[in-house]
Specification:
The chain is of the alpha+beta class. Helix content is about 25%, strand content about 25%. It is built from 4 helices and 18 strands. The strands form 8 sheets. A 3-stranded antiparallel β-sheet has the order 6-5-9, with no helix packed on it. α1 runs antiparallel to α4. It is elongated, with a radius of gyration of 26 Å. The model has no long low-confidence stretch (mean pLDDT about 90).
Length: about 250
Amino acid sequence: MIYGLYLSATGIMTNAYRQDVIANNLANADTTGFKRDIASFKQRLTEQQEGRRTGGWSDPDLEGLGGGTLVMPTRVDFEQGAIEQSGGPLDVAIEGGSFFAVDQGGQTRLTRDGRFQVNRDGFLVLPDGQKVLDDKLRPIALAADAPTTIDRSGQITQAGQVVARIGLFDVPDRAGLTKVGGNLLAYADPAQIRPASGTLHNGFLEGSNADPTTELTELMDAQRQLEANANMIRAQDATLQRLVNDVGKIS
């Protein structure tokens, strides 16, 4: 293996992956309640440094070069997005670190998307049809034609009567939350989803926490690093070509 080519190749692969993550953030800069992803990497240690090489020769100088870069699991940035007025009578934004819970095909999912509406069966749902759950993890049934108010604690009142309370939940370890599409999050052990606190704002929605300016800056940085590694591969290829065709030629 030609070590320089290997190191440059890992740089290309990791920065190509980083570009994909940033591009997805940019595509969701206007998605309600979206939480940006952060691509993370680590240095790959050599076999000697990892302790897997027990014998044989090893060059201390080469060991110091490391083994390139490896992609680590993508992290989700749960920083609060901007809360903006929408005017929707059932729109709700969370101020704080908790989540709404919804039912997706019998599975409990978490989300920050508060674009609620009442479906034909009288249940409070997300735009894609997932039922919003109350503080007891039960679907919320509402009268479609009754005036509705939602207070800061999530209490829903219709025609002067309290009918339900929107549940707010969190998990012991947010690193265990994974995106499953549709702006929903799944937790490895749903039994550990627990009640949480937060302040709700009726008539408002939380925007994405992906800032286009920041994402574009990071995208350009990833492109420059990818190009630098590609240039290194071309330079090493030219050097090897000269080594084989000129230096190694029998005169």
